[in-house]
Write a structure and sequence with these properties.
This protein is an alpha+beta fold. Helices cover 29% and strands 25% of the residues.
C-alpha cells in the first residue's frame, strides 16, 4: 500500500489534556505512521504493546508490497475464503464505486502497472467484473489494488484499538488522519500552491489526494478506470471514517464540482477542492 498522495497535513493539538503525551512512530500498512496519545504512560504502553498484532492481521490481507490475501487473489484469480476484514473492505469498495459513478475502482491495478512500465494495458478493467459469490473471483488478467482505501481502513482500526484501551484523546497519522477527541488543527496544502487552508478535527478523519504529486510513467498516480484526466489538483475529504475519507478523496479528483455537490452519503462532512490554478472550493 505505497503512498501516492501529496499530504501537507501537520497536526498540533489545540488544547492538550493535563496528562502525559506519548508518541509512537513506525511503519503500518505500508506507510509511515505516527500515533500521538494523551493519557497515562502505562495505558499507552499497554495499547502499543498489542498494536503490532493488529497491524499484522490487517497486513495479512491488503498490501501489494508483500505476500497477502490480495496478492494471492491477483496471482490466482480467486480467493475462496476471504477474512471478515477483506469482505468488509470489498463491500465498502462496492458502495463507494456506485456512489462515485465508478470513479473509485480497485480494478485499476493493471493500468498502474502498465503506466509504470511504459506499455499499453491489455488486461480487463472494471469493478463490475469482480464476482463476490461466496469467495472473490477475477477475470483472467485482472488485478485489484486497495491503495485508495486500505490505509484509511487501517487508521480506523488503530483508532478503535486505542479507544478499546480507554483513550479518548489521540491522533493517528498515516497520511490519512483519524482523531479521537480533539480538537486537532491541520494545514491543508497542494503540491503546486502550498498551504491554502486550515482544518480542525474533533473525533473525525481527513484524507487528501493530489494526483500529480506522484507520477507513474508520466501519468498521475491516481487513475480513472476509463483513463479520464483528473479535474482537481488536490481533493481533501472530511468524514467520521478514515476509510470513507480515503476512498472518496481518491475518487473525487475525477468528478466536477456540481456532481460532488450532489453526493449523498450520511458520513460525508466536507470536501475541499483545489483546482490546477490554486483556487479553493469548499462543498
Amino acid at each position: 500500500m505505497n503512498r501516492r498522495r501529496f499530504l501537507a497535513l501537520s497536526a498540533a493539538a489545540l488544547a492538550s489534556p493535563a496528562h502525559a503525551q506519548t508518541r509512537w512512530q513506525g511503519r503500518a500498512f505500508g506507510a509511515d505512521c505516527t500515533l500521538t496519545l494523551f493519557g497515562p504512560t502505562r495505558q499507552a504502553e499497554a495499547a502499543l504493546a498489542t498494536l503490532p498484532t493488529l497491524i499484522e492481521a490487517i497486513e495479512a490481507d491488503f498490501p501489494l508490497h508483500r505476500p497477502s490475501a490480495l496478492t494471492s487473489l491477483n496471482a490466482t484469480g480467486r480467493l475462496a475464503d476471504p477474512s471478515p476484514a477483506f469482505r468488509a473492505l470489498t463491500d465498502l469498495a462496492d458502495a463507494i464505486h456506485r456512489l462515485t459513478d465508478g470513479a473509485f475502482d480497485p480494478s485499476v491495478q493493471p493500468l498502474w502497472q502498465a503506466a509504470a512500465e511504459g506499455r499499453p494495458n491489455l488486461a480487463p478493467i472494471g469493478w463490475h467484473r469482480v464476482r463476490r459469490d461466496g469467495g472473490i473471483a477475477l477475470d483472467a488478467g485482472m488485478a485489484l489494488t486497495f491503495n485508495g482505501i486500505a490505509q484509511g481502513f487501517g487508521a480506523d482500526a488503530v483508532r478503535a484499538h486505542l479507544a478499546a484501551h480507554g483513550f479518548d484523546h489521540a491522533l493517528i497519522d498515516m497520511g490519512e488522519m483519524a482523531a479521537l477527541g480533539g480538537p486537532f488543527r491541520f494545514g491543508l496544502g497542494d503540491p503546486a500552491h502550498g498551504q491554502l487552508a486550515t482544518r480542525t478535527l474533533t473525533g473525525t478523519a481527513i484524507a487528501t489526494s493530489s494526483p500529480m504529486a506522484t507520477l507513474a510513467g508520466g501519468q498521475p498516480h491516481i487513475l480513472h478506470p476509463q483513463g479520464l484526466p483528473p479535474h482537481w489538483s488536490t481533493v481533501s475529504v472530511e468524514a467520521p471514517s478514515a476509510t470513507l475519507a480515503d476512498a472518496l478523496s481518491a475518487a473525487l479528483v475525477f468528478l466536477p464540482a456540481d456532481r460532488i455537490a450532489r453526493l449523498r452519503h450520511p458520513g460525508l462532512i466536507r470536501v475541499t477542492l483545489i483546482d490546477p490554478e490554486g483556487n479553493l472550493t469548499t462543498i
